[in-house]
C-alpha cells in the first residue's frame, strides 16, 4: 500500500531543518553568500556526523535573514509536508535564528510564519502550530531570552516551548529557569533527550524540566523501569527513526527500539526531524516501519491518535483534524 495519501500527524520537525536544499541555495545566490561547502555535488546537504550536521544547519540559517525569508521558508516546508500527507504539524522555531532573541524582532518573524501557515492551510489543508525552541549548546544564559520570546507570544499558534541542539552539553537542570518561565506562561513543554544521552538524561529531563513530551527518547530502552515510568506518566516520545538511522544514533532500522518501546507501553509517535538532511519524509518513515516491523493500517492509526493526543493545539483544532 502507498502511505502517501494516508493522513499523518507530525510533532517533531525543525523549521530550518526542513528547508529544501534548493531553497537554501537559491537564497544564498540571491544574497551572494557562498554556501557551496555545505552541499554535495548532487545538491544534498553535506556533513560527516551529528556535530558537523549542527554546524551545517547553522550555516544554512545564515541566509535566512528576514521575516520575508521565513514566510517563504514556511510555504516551502508546508508544501513539502502536505505532499507527504501530513495534515497536522508542529515545528520548532528558534528566535536565536529569528531576530537573535530580541522580542520585537521575533514578533515580526512569527507574524510572517503565521501568515504563511494560514496561506498553506488554505492551499493544502495542513495545520501548523509552533514550538519555540532554545538551543542547548548556546548555553543556559541564551535560553532565558528565548523563553521570554516564547512567553510573550504564547497564543493559539505558538503553543509550546522546547530545547534542541547538542544534548551532551550541560545538564537539563541548567535550563530549568527557561522551562519554568515557559510553563508559568502557559506553554506546553518538550525537550530533546535520549537521542545521544542515556536513560539518565531522559530521567533528569523529566525531573528538572517537567516536560510532557520527549524529543527522541530512544535510549530510554536501556532502562525498562524508566520506560515504565514514561508509560505510567503518559509521556509521549517524538520518535524520528529515519533521523536516528541516518545519524547513526542506532545501527540500523532493525535495531531501532521504537517497536520495543511501544510493546513495553510507552506512547510513541513518528516524525522526520530534519527531512532533507536525512533524505526522508513521512512516507519514507511509514514505508520503512512497514518493511522493518510489519506495521500496517492499525499501527499507523495508533500513531495518528497518539500524535493528536499529545499535540499542543487546543481541543477545537484537534476535533477538526481527527
Ligand atoms: N536540531 C535539529 N535536529 C536536531 C536533532 N536531531 N537533535 C538535536 N538538535 C537538533
Ligand atoms: Zn529534533
TrEMBL record:
EC number: 3.5.4.4
CDD domains: ADA (cd01320)
Residue stretches making up the Adenosine deaminase domain: 7-322
Stored Gene3D superfamilies: Metal-dependent hydrolases
Keyword Hydrolase appears in the UniProt entry: yes
InterPro entries given in the database record: A_deaminase_dom, Ado/ade_deaminase, Metal_Hydrolase
Keywords: Hydrolase, Metal-binding, Zinc
Signal peptide limits: none
Recorded superkingdom: Bacteria
Entry cofactors: Zn(2+)
Molecular function terms, GO-annotated: deaminase activity; hydrolase activity, acting on carbon-nitrogen (but not peptide) bonds, in cyclic amidines; metal ion binding
Family: Belongs to the metallo-dependent hydrolases superfamily. Adenosine and AMP deaminases family.
Matching NCBIfam families: aden_deam, PRK09358.1-3
Protein name in the entry: Adenosine deaminase
Amino acid at each position: 500500500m502507498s502511505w502517501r495519501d494516508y493522513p499523518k500527524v507530525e510533532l517533531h520537525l525543525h523549521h530550518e531543518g526542513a528547508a529544501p536544499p534548493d531553497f537554501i541555495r537559491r537564497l544564498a545566490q540571491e544574497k551572494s553568500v557562498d554556501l557551496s561547502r555545505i552541499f554535495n555535488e548532487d545538491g544534498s546537504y553535506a556533513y560527516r556526523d551529528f556535530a558537523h550536521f549542527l554546524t551545517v544547519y547553522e550555516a544554512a540559517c545564515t541566509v535566512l535573514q528576514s521575516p520575508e525569508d521565513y514566510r517563504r521558508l514556511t510555504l516551502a516546508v508546508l508544501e513539502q509536508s502536505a505532499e507527504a500527507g501530513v495534515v497536522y504539524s508542529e515545528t520548532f522555531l528558534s528566535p536565536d535564528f529569528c531576530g537573535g532573541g530580541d522580542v520585537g524582532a521575533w514578533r515580526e518573524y512569527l507574524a510572517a510564519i503565521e501568515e504563511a501557515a494560514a496561506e498553506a492551510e488554505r492551499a493544502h489543508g495542513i495545520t501548523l502550530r509552533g514550538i519555540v525552541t532554545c538551543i542547548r549548546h548556546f548555553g543556559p544564559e541564551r535560553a532565558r531570552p528565548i523563553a521570554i520570546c516564547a512567553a510573550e507570544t504564547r497564543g493559539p499558534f505558538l503553543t509550546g516551548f522546547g530545547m534542541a541542539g547538542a544534548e551532551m552539553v550541560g545538564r537539563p537542570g541548567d535550563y530549568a529557569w527557561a522551562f519554568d518561565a515557559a510553563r508559568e506562561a502557559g506553554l506546553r513543554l518538550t525537550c530533546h533527550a535520549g537521542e545521544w544521552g542515556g536513560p539518565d538524561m531522559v530521567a533528569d529531563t523529566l525531573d528538572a524540566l517537567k516536560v510532557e513530551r520527549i524529543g527522541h527518547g530512544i535510549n530510554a530502552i536501556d532502562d525498562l523501569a524508566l520506560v515504565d515510568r514514561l508509560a505510567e506518566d503518559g509521556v509521549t516520545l517524538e520518535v524520528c527513526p529515519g533521523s536516528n538511522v541516518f545519524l547513526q544514533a542506532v545501527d540500523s532500522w532493525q535495531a531501532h527500539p521504537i517497536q520495543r518501546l511501544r510493546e513495553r507501553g510507552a506512547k510513541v509517535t513518528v516524525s522526520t526531524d530534519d527531512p532533507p538532511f536525512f533524505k526522508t519524509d513521512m512516507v519514507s518513515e511509514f514505508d520503512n516501519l512497514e518493511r522493518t516491523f510489519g506495521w500496517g493500517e492499525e499501527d499507523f492509526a495508533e500513531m495518528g491518535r497518539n500524535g493528536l493526543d499529545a499535540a499542543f493545539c487546543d481541543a477545537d483544532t484537534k476535533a477538526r483534524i481527527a
